Amino acid sequence: MNPLLETANVFRTFQIGTGFLKPKRPLHAVNGVSLRLTKGEVLGLVGESGCGKSTLARMLLGLLPPSSGDILIGGESITALDRRATARRVQPIFQDPYSSLNPRKSIGEIIQLPLKVHRVGDPSAWPGKVREMMDMVGLPSRYVGNFPSQLSGGQRQRVAIARALIMRPEVVICDEPTSALDVSVQSQILNLLLDLQRELGLTYLLISHNLAVVEHMAHRVAVMYLGRIVEEAETDQLFRDPQHPYTRALLASVLTPEPGLGVPDAHLGATFPNPIDPPPGCTFHPRCPQAMPACRTIAPKPLATATGHVECHLYDTELRRAS
Length: 323
Ligand code: SF4
What we know:
Layout: E1 5-16, E2 25-37, E3 42-46, H1 53-60, E4 68-73, E5 76-77, H2 83-89, E6 90-93, H3 107-117, H4 126-136, H5 153-165, E7 171-175, H6 183-200, E8 203-207, H7 211-217, E9 220-225, E10 228-234, H8 235-240, H9 245-252, E11 303-304, E12 309-310, H10 317-322
Helix pairs in contact: 3-4, 3-5, 4-5, 5-6
The structure holds iron/sulfur cluster (SF4).
Iron/sulfur cluster is lined by residues 244-245, 282, 284-285, 288, 290-292, 295, 300, 312-314.
């Protein structure tokens, strides 16, 4: 099936200052990522803070151009679309419903805003669309004139979801959609997102630190480490038989029940490396319990697995035979 959203060998590099009078150095936040999302699919994207997930999300939203490579929506390059055209097709739902809603606007105004900005349809029909959307996300229409400060965290995230979906985007980037919420309402919001995805045939990129959330929602999972997708597989396969040592460490870690704490202790020994100064060879080698001599000098290439790919020398029979 043709992908709805595709990244083709996408790179994003930032020039970072490292000190007074010192030359800037490149930071390769996204380092050759190729992903495909088909219509109606939920792709989970996991990895520690600083691995490049948010930079990738910003590029998919058209907020940041790739340094090289291409991003295609329905076969069209995102660079050929203006910001508004991209926003009509790809919408975000962010982590923090407290800061992503304008406190001075009423709930009705907030949900209606995308229709106004993009001048979609007849303005006299907008209030009806807002009420329909509120109903769809489980917000009583009596809240239409209320302000964000009068709602609970879960209700605010419902407002953010209604605002993201009112234009009926094809792709939704869900960036840690529940990690700022109380545990008691997290599952309600996740189930709402799943119901809407099925009902409206939406395609989600679900970015989350929480592997339990990803296992519950995603059809496929991509594991990101220092700007690369080091493993990608169907969800069942990845959780049943993880191939990459980093994926195994993530799955073995004790998942935190606390929202917003991320991947807690992945039992990896050495800390996450400085992305400005990544280790040579396999960038995971200083933390990898199965590192071999070749891992220190040779970067692994993507190798096909049963349902996706892995980047690890353990599965490179040619390299292992030669060493
Ligand atoms: Fe570990 Fe080597 Fe595989 Fe990298 S390539 S994950 S260091 S075994």
